[in-house]
Amino acid sequence: MIIDDLLLFALAAGLGLALVTGPLGSFVVWRRMAYFGDTLAHSALLGIALGFLFGIDLNFGILAVCTAMAVLLVVLRQRQRLASDTVLGILAHSSLSLGLVAIAFMEGLRVDLMGYLFGDILAVGGSDLLWIYGGGAVVLGGLIAIWRPLLASTLHEELAKVEGVRTLPVQLAFMGLMALTIALAMQIVGILLVTSLLIIPAATARAFSRTPEQMAVVAALIGCLAVIGGLLASFHWDLPTGPSIVVAATLIFALVTAVRGPGAAGGSFAAKR
C-alpha cells in the first residue's frame, strides 16, 4: 500500500510537471535557448545553499536565484561584449561551483546532493504536489498571457518590435516562467536533468506538429508518456527514477527519428521558420 501511494504521488507530480514543460519547452526549442535553461538549472544549487544559509524555504531560494539569474542573462544578452555561449558557460559553471562551495562551508549540514542533482520523485508528498500544481498553473497562465507577443518575437524579433511588441518585458517574463519551472522540477528530475525534460519532448513533438499550439500540446503528451515509462522502468528494474524519465523521453525521440527519418525533429512548423 505504501509503495502504491509513493507511485501515485510520483505519477501525479511527474504528469503535472510534464504538462508545464511541454509548452514552455517548445519555446526553448524554437528560440534555441537550451543553454539558457542549463544555466538557470545550474544556478539552482546556489539557491539551495542560500536557502539553507538564511533559513528560508528551499523552493523560494531556488526561485529567487533563478529569477535573478534570468534577469541577468537577458540584460547581458542585450549588452553583450562576449559571445552568448561564453557568458552562459561562465555563469552556469560559476553558479554551480559557488553553490557547492557554499554548502561545503556549512558545518554540520548534511545535504543530499545526489537528490538535488538527479532528483527524487519518490519523495514527493502532498505539500509538494500543491507547490507543483500551484506553480504550474501560474506558469501556464503566464505563458498563455504572453503567448502571442512571445511567438511574434520568436518568429522575427525586429518585425515584432516594428509591430509594437515590447520584446524585452516579454523576454523577462518568459525567463521568469523558466525560473519557476526549474524550481518546480528540482525535486523530480534534479538540476542536471531538468533541461532535458524541457527540450526532448518538445524536440520530438516537432515531427507531428503543423502549428505552435499543436506542438505545445503534443510536447506535453510526450512528456507525460516519458514520465509513465520512466516510473514503470524504475519500479520494475529498481532504477533511479529521474534519469529513467529522461531516458524514456530520449527513447521516444530516437524511435520517432528512426521511423520518420533524420529530418523528423525539424517538423513542418520549423520549416516555416
TrEMBL record:
InterPro entries: ABC_BtuC-like (IPR037294), ABC_TroCD (IPR001626). Belongs to the ABC-3 integral membrane protein family. CDD domains: TM_ABC_iron-siderophores_like. The keyword Transmembrane applies. It comes from Halorhodospira halochloris. It is a multi-pass membrane protein. GO terms for biological process: response to zinc ion; transmembrane transport; zinc ion transport. It holds the Pfam family ABC-3. Involved in the high-affinity zinc uptake transport system. This is High-affinity zinc uptake system membrane protein ZnuB. The chain crosses the membrane at residues 6-30, 42-75, 87-109, 130-150, 170-203, 215-237, 243-263. The keyword Cell membrane applies. GO terms for cellular component: ATP-binding cassette (ABC) transporter complex. It is found in: Cell inner membrane; Cell membrane. Keywords: Cell inner membrane, Cell membrane, Ion transport, Membrane, Transmembrane, Transmembrane helix, Transport, Zinc, Zinc transport.
